Amino acid sequence: AMHAGRHAEWSDLLADSLGTVLALLFLNLGQSGYRRLTAATAALLLAGPTAHAQPTADAPDLIRARHTIEALAAPAMHGRGYVQQGEHVAAAYLRGRLQALSLKPLAPDYTQSFTLDVNTFPGEASLQLSRSRWPQFGKQYTLQVGRDFIAAPNSAGSSEGIYQPVCYLDSATLTTPARLAYFLQFTHHPCIVIVADHYAQQPTHQPAIVSARLDSAAAVISVVPKLTASLAPQQSPTVQLQVLPNSLFNFTPNSLASTAAIAGRVRLDAQLIHDYQTQNLAAVARGRTQPDSFVVVTAHYDHLGMMGKNTYFPGANDNASGVALLLELAAHYARPENQPACSVAFLLFGAEEAGLLGSSYFVQH
Fold first, then answer.
1. Domain boundary at 233, 268, 303, which?
2. Distances from the Cα of 116 to the Cαs of 66, 80, 151, 273, 295, in angstroms?
3. What are 307's strand-pairing partners?
């Protein structure tokens, strides 16, 4: 079964949502009544579409917009990322939508291709922890990828699996000589290091020898307040995970009452792909009186894809919702009676999650 993973970087989601609303509020190409239309639409967006919203002759079809979001966020899109070519599936769907509107392509078949390097997690992704050094005698606690933990974007993989004792690094370890000495003695041998707080996760707070031990650890697991997935163009030499706080990480030194895990098992399939070919999509509604002047409406259609073979990031609000409203604007201006005075270009960017690569490539080319 497919599971939806968390993704909650509020600033990114807010920017995408406000960009959609502002496009509707301020795109005024001289047609009477359109300012009132867009203000009303923005109010509906901020309130959320209802099942009873019915389109009028000039209004965006919010039911169709919701269906667009559902289609783009569906499991069949594989999170619109780079595992199972999810972004290609999404691009094919969107290309068909542009063609159905009879918009003119700005590139052959609406497509501007480019390449990128991207680290992906296409196969196994599992994390188990135990309060016993000998797992056959202790209970195994299985954490779910996408809900309890994620891979760091540049994580290496270990598909054959890692089973090692756990050692903890926190601010007290870095500031207490006796605990630091114990940490250095413990990590002289292979182990999984759980970095338990924000202070210890800062490289500037880590002595060089601690950084070296982290680089040589079997795996590094950082405890974070929320899971925010992203993408990276390179791969580190170490398996790196991020986990939400859990009683399994409540380490108390020299305490028989400690509930912390003391052993862990990690399996992670990571694949760094070089020169992966992806694309932007570009179409235009030609202007009536000023066809060489352009208003540009943009949205990125890619998302974070999959993490493991059974977990995907839907990306409904990052940025399927923006794409849906772009398509509604495109449908409005594609109608002969709504032909704008100047041309309106509709750009659907790829590889935004990888660092605004699609929009940068478009500007440069």
1. 268
2. 31, 15, 20, 8, 28
3. 121
- Final residue before a domain boundary, out of 253, 268, 283: 268
- Report how far residue 17's alpha carbon sits from residue 45's, in angstroms, rounded to the nearest whole number: 9
Query: In this structure, are residues 125 and 181 in contact, taking their beta carbons and an 8 Å threshold?
Result: no
- Alpha carbons within 13 angstroms on the beta-carbon side of residue 7 total 27
Domain count, the chain: 2
311 has a pLDDT exceeding 60: yes
User: Among the listed ranges 40-49, 246-255, 259-268, which one has the minimum average pLDDT value?
Assistant: 40-49
Q: Is the pLDDT of residue 51 over 60?
A: no
Asked whether residue 42 carries a pLDDT value surpassing 50, the answer given is: no
Go through the chain and tell me how many residues it has.
365
Range of the domain at 191: 124-268
DSSP per residue over 282-342, as a string?
EEEE--SSEEEEEEEEEEE-----BBSSSEE---IIIIIHHHHHHHHHHHHHHSGGG--SE
